[in-house]
Protein: Vacuolar iron transporter
Organism: Salvia divinorum
Amino acid sequence: MASNQIQNPNPSILEQDLEQEFDYSKRSQWLRAAVLGANDGLVSTASLMMGVGAVKHAIKAMVLAGFAGLVAGACSMAIGEFVSVYSQLDIELAQMRREEKRAGVAAVDGEKREGNLPNPIQAAAASALAFSVGAMVPLLAASFIEEYKVRVGVVVAAVSAALVAFGWVGAVLGRAPVVRSTARVLVGGWLAMALTYGLTKLIGSKGL
C-alpha cells in the first residue's frame, strides 16, 4: 500500500505545480496577433459589406467589397505586424547586447537567448492568416444568398457566432474571464457594423 502511494502522487497537486511553472505570458505574442487579426478581419470586412449593402443591395457589390477588404486588410495587418515586431526585436537585441557587454556573458549564452526573441516574419504571417480567416466568415455567409434582407440577417448571425467563438477561444487560452471577454468582443462587433451601416445609409440617402 505504501509503495502505491509513493508511485501515485495526488494528480491535482501535480497539475497545480505545472500550471504555476507554465508562464501564460509566453502565449501573448502569437495569441495577440491571432485573436486581433481574426477579430479585425471579421469585424472590418463585415462592416464594409454592411456599409456597401446599405446603398447597393446587389450581392456582387457586397461580395466584391468584402473581398477587397480581405486583401487590403490582410496586407495591412501583415505589414503593420512585421514593422512592429521588427522594432521590438531591434530594441530587445540592443538591450541584450548591452547586458552581455556589462556582465561579460559568453557568446553561447547570447545565442540561446536570441532563440527566444520575437520573429517578425512569423508574426506577420500569423496576423495575415488570422485576418483572412476572420474575413472569410461574412464573405461565405453572403456569397450565395440573393435576397438582400435574408443576406444581411445571415451575415449578422454568422459574424455574431464567430465573434463569440473568437472571444471564447482568446479568453480560454489567455486565462481571462470568459463571459466578460466574449461579451466585449461581441458588443464591439455589433457597434462597428451598426455604425458603418447607419452612417453609410445616411450619406447615401443624401445623394452624396
Q: What stands out?
A: Residues 24 and 174 are 7 Å apart (CA to CA). Residues 59-103 form the longest helix (45 residues). Confidence is low (pLDDT under 50) at residues 1-6, 11-24.
